[in-house]
Amino acid sequence: MSLNETLIEQKDALLAAHQADDRERLELLLPELRAADIAEILEQIAEEQDHQTVFGLLDRLPLDRRAHIIGYLPEDLQEELAREMSDESLLSVFEEMSADERADLFNLLDEDRREGLLRRMARQEREDLKRLASYEEGTAGSIMTSDYVAIPSGMTVSQAMMRVRQTAPDAETVYQLYVVDPEGKLAGTLSLRQLMVARPGAQVDDLMIKDVISVPVDEEQEEVARLVARYDMLAVPVTDHEERLIGIITHDDAMDVAEEEATEDMHKGMSIGKIEGGLRSASLFDLYRKRVVWLVLLVFANIFSGAGIAYFEETIEAYIALVFFLPLLVDSGGNAGSQAATLMVRGMATGDVRSRDWAKLLGREVAVAIGLGLTMALAVSVVGIFRAGTEIAMVVAMSMVLIVIVGSLIGMLLPFILNRIGWDPATASAPLVTSIADASGVLIYFAIATAVLGLPGG
Amino acid sequence: MSLNETLIEQKDALLAAHQADDRERLELLLPELRAADIAEILEQIAEEQDHQTVFGLLDRLPLDRRAHIIGYLPEDLQEELAREMSDESLLSVFEEMSADERADLFNLLDEDRREGLLRRMARQEREDLKRLASYEEGTAGSIMTSDYVAIPSGMTVSQAMMRVRQTAPDAETVYQLYVVDPEGKLAGTLSLRQLMVARPGAQVDDLMIKDVISVPVDEEQEEVARLVARYDMLAVPVTDHEERLIGIITHDDAMDVAEEEATEDMHKGMSIGKIEGGLRSASLFDLYRKRVVWLVLLVFANIFSGAGIAYFEETIEAYIALVFFLPLLVDSGGNAGSQAATLMVRGMATGDVRSRDWAKLLGREVAVAIGLGLTMALAVSVVGIFRAGTEIAMVVAMSMVLIVIVGSLIGMLLPFILNRIGWDPATASAPLVTSIADASGVLIYFAIATAVLGLPGG
């Protein structure tokens, strides 16, 4: 929390110095701040003040820092900033940005502007930008960078070392090197550490690891993050369909993807669609839209619960006390089911659970659910006896056991079923599981009640 | 998915060769496999076959690979393996393991064994192991390693380069270097890349960045992961209370922590306690225990909903059709509230939302919730008119608007309130929010019904 307070202080100091046009003070303050922190301060200023102040502050920074910080800003700010800038300044910012961030900024511009900018670039730069900007969002291509160190096959260690030194200022990482054959195909990889301890005259081809882990350019970014985490990689190379090396994805970008995907999965677990940008910057309509779809669908799904209740209307009229326990029972089934679904969905996302494990996990879930059901039946019968007498308490306790077991099994199996039919298992959200568990809970409860208590006059 | 199939094939091939004692084939198969993959294959074999096969296969590997793979195995397997091994073999495995993994394995042993092993170690090794093993789980100390490259202050670039080459075989990373003063305090940091492009005679102290991001040894591991992600770090240095450098945490370990914490938060969002190890390896009793606590607590919390219903018993008896809509209405409030809670809890975990943002976010949530409530009221009134006539449909629609707004606000505010009183905001789980939203939903619904429809004979 001290960091946040520090940031607030730094923001206030920056603003004061900027507004007083106190250049000396700004020259003391600005170099002290890290890019991620300045970006956060600017985002905050954009929320509290106006965007012009943000752009004014950015103008006070040297070009390379400015370019670096722009990469950290939220998309809407980047977009507006680019609109304010002349083609000249935008092109000079482009030059200082890393290839992947340049492509992301480029994709925020409208088509006319993009065309105009491309025309003013050197051929190689233009081709590189066009290519990086062309990959579909969510794929390996969309997060890779072309700033990597490629070593032509056939070099000696000392030649390769020279190449590393030459490329060092521009490359995103110089610590993992990629050996390519004359056709541009990825032939192997070696680390700078290996290179450093090797004999200068040794052949790179003899040192390199030939069995390289790489990803195709259209691989899902989620899968890329999983690979980087699994094999503790510094970067993963990306290849095109002819297995030519075309980019790398570094560990920090993989970590950002993993965080983004975890957030998306958590939201999905509550039937919330994918929200672009942060919670604070998302538009109200977007927040509404991403939440309302499933909520309304589930209103209709809940008709089944209502129909179940209608079917047992006579029982309910005869034993009105049954209604007291209705929310409690259906909630319990929904809760146990949501727990089971969450365990499965997250297990599948991290690779801890695979679809072929379902039968084994089903057996385990049955055992756990019986335990849960019995414990909760005990708890509810204490409540039941005090509120409604032994007979109804017995009905409620029996229902609880069954409802919890059925709810748990629905929650556990639904992700596997969805996966089997080609859907995202995360669609088995808590609200969906709850609605299905509710309908079954209503049927179980009133069926048991009708059987045990008998129909009025029956 | 192809990876999994490949792994299954490799597992079958390994098992066949092992059982036939076909050494030639094993010598072809084993070097091809990566440590993370062998570990996963062994875990699978442990589940399907017996542990002896696993240990037998491990014995066929050279010591350094064996040590590396053991670090990837789940704790229960590591524990059993260590029990099977003699002190001699365990000590030689220890020597080949990285410092952090050695400490983790050491912590799985019982006290007598630990004492015995420590007595047989050299003093420096012993002190290092004892220190690393002593940090509380979940802190920076528990995940750091002591295998880093420290450069004494005052060295030249070429001296530092020599030091890097000497340390290279043992250090976890040689790409980020830490400069320490004579008292062992962290004076600065520089990257190998900086060192490589610098003049050999230059002073390291002139090159290094003095404003180092570091973490105290008792910092929460979650915070460490957040820092590494925020500043795109390769490793973060860890200091003791005298600001002496005592370890580093590398990006791959930070990424593992981030994944682990995201899993924990998702589970917490469904009121599931922290499960040690994977879902498949957790004991049934542990799974039961981690789920039952809140489920039972919520049974008692649901008494409030029951009490609300009891209070309005006369209204319900008079208009039994009201019961049809009860699960639908309380579910809707719970769903909207769970969505709001999840958005806030995850936002707080990633740093997108801060506690001081609550007022601004409250305003936004009110606006979104009104939109959600009106849309869902429209949906439910379509259902209502067909099932129960216009009068009840009107009651249901009015209730829906209010219930969704109240549910959303409960879900949104609860994480902030919990945070304020020093609890983990993630305690505002979907089941808890649902239970609270349920009780308010019951009151809102039947109060509106009583007001609009009137009491029987009233």
From TrEMBL, chains A, B:
It is a multi-pass membrane protein. CDD domains: CBS_pair_Mg_transporter (cd04606). It holds the Pfam family MgtE_N. One of its GO terms (molecular function) is magnesium ion transmembrane transporter activity. The chain crosses the membrane at residues 292-312, 318-345, 366-386, 392-418, 430-455. Keywords: CBS domain, Cell membrane, Magnesium, Membrane, Metal-binding, Transmembrane, Transmembrane helix, Transport. PROSITE patterns: CBS. The keyword Metal-binding applies. It comes from the Bacteria. Acts as a magnesium transporter. PANTHER family: MAGNESIUM TRANSPORTER MGTE (PTHR43773:SF1). This is Magnesium transporter MgtE. It comes from Billgrantia kenyensis.
